[in-house]
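Hey all, quick one. A colleague (J.T.) asked me to put the 2-phosphoglycolic acid job into the tracker so the inputs and the structure tokens live in one place instead of scattered across chat threads. No bug as far as I know, just bookkeeping. Sequence used:
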Amino acid sequence: MAEVVIVETADAAGEIVADEIQRLLEAKPDAVLGLATGSTPLTTWKALARRALDLSAVRGFALDEYVGLEPGHPESYRSVITREVVVPLGLNPDLVRVPADRGPVETAGEDYERAILEAGGVDLQILGIGSTGHIGFNEPGSSLASLTRVKTLTERTRLDNARYFSSPEEVPMHCVTQGLGTILRAGHLVLLAFGEGKAEAIAGAVEGPVTASLPGSAIQLHPRVTVVVDEAAASSLRFADYYRHAWNNRLRVSGGQA
Ligand code: PGA
């Protein structure tokens, strides 16, 4: 079972996750972070930026990227990661990779997998979850063993992301995303979710059966997972009282409590 932390606000969640990242970086200044885009991780990046740590040795791998946006498009995940993570946190842009950033889409998957392995693997992976239950852009049906590859986005995800574009048709149809198997190789998974719209996906991911139909449920296969949610996103969790009890009485042991 994942360690589930239920907080009052997204800002409180950001502080908890920033603490976790800071602890990692104190032990390993050149740690490898798995970076997520979207609205969910923003409070984490802001909390980390406020701490003004020296993050210049940190290496980063984004979870996913759209296919088909022109280079420099403000909503490409390369641009988003640069704007929301690299610049405010003072990361070295040369140490931050985004899928398909160094070659054709056809070989992007293999290339990205190799780069992650050569970096020694991701130490801590930040994750959001989509209303379809996706993590990264692994939409329902994604193999639990999948690696970085091209995927077709669901219409639901395209609509969810239309708020960043001037029209829903502009949202790309395809992406390159780390697979569920890629994500499961990271040392520590930190999944964040806020708001009622995520309650069902969170309940399925944390407590539902492990199934490709709800890709977030793959986290149950990982030995070290922290899920940080607000009350609304926690509202469908069956064991919420136990999670609160466990967090309020936590014993810090290395490796966490899966
Ligand atoms: P959001 O997206 O953080 O913008 O809600 C999460 C996701 O689609 O993975």
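Adding what we noticed when we looked at it: Residues 38-40, 128-130, 134 surround 2-phosphoglycolic acid (CB under 6 Å). The chain is about 30% helix and 15% strand.
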